[in-house]
Amino acid sequence: MEDHGVLNPVGTDIDFANPATVCWWHMKCGAVLGVHNGMIIEYEASTLAPLGMVVSRDELENRRVAVIDDEWGGSALVLYDDSSDDVTVVQPNEDGSYWRKVVRNKMHRMREMRRSKAAKNWASKELKKGQNGEINVLSSYGPYTTTAGQASHSAAVVVCVCVCVLLFIDFSEGRYDSTTRIVAGMALLRLLVKLACQACFLHLQ
């Protein structure tokens, strides 16, 4: 480490985005961070068991890492690159930990973006596309382009349930004769069967 805290300084062959590079360091707060498999990972201080990802491989690529004094008796983890004036401070969580508690839908979106980026790079290198303009990468999510049909189906189920409740109240109070009850019951039964068939069709699709 250099005097000003840079872990992968200029003039060295240390590339933290390289999966083969391994580096460990301790923060003043006691947190143990390390570079492994192209990512910055936080480890449990006593057992060195991995806790979670702090900086992803995409964020770490072509960037330098430094541990600096936060001017309040602690340390701060910062990322920067040589081609811009941007500096990123990796802020710890409220409990003092650094690993990112990423929710599943956010991770899923990140993976989708990575796939789209990979497809664009592949089309450019292997298919020689994009010579005369930008490559347009699209994503397919199956046969359905909207959720309108599913929403309509759900609304129909709700309406059917409400009608059943209202008819049950009317029938229990004796407002209709037996013939009306039979006709209404058959109509509701047909509707329920239709909704069940539609649900099965959507599931199979």
The average pLDDT score comes to 76
Rg, Cα atoms, Å = 30 Å
Measured distance between first and last alpha carbons: 57 Å
Shape: elongated
Estimate the strand proportion.
Answer: 15-25%
Biggest β-sheet: count, sense, barrel? Answer: 4 strands, antiparallel
Number of domains: 3
Number of strands: 7
Question: What structural category characterises the helix and strand content?
Answer: alpha+beta
> Considering DSSP H and I runs of 4 or more, what fraction of the residues is helical?
25-40%
Q: How many DSSP H or I helices?
A: 4
| Helix-strand topology string | EEEEHEEEHHH
Strand order, largest beta sheet: 1-2-3-4
* Uncertain stretches of 5 or more adjacent residues: 144-151, 201-205
Describe this structure in words.
With 205 residues, the chain is of the alpha+beta class. The protein has 3 domains: 23-99; 103-130; 148-204. Helices cover 38% and strands 18% of the residues. The protein has 4 helices and 7 strands, in the order ββββαβββααα. It has a 4-stranded antiparallel beta sheet. The chain has a 3-stranded antiparallel beta sheet with strand order 5-6-7, with no helix packed on it. α3 (148-172) runs antiparallel to α4 (178-204). The chain is elongated.
List keywords for this structure.
3-stranded antiparallel sheet; 18% strand; alpha+beta; 205 residues; single chain; disordered C terminus; 4-stranded antiparallel sheet
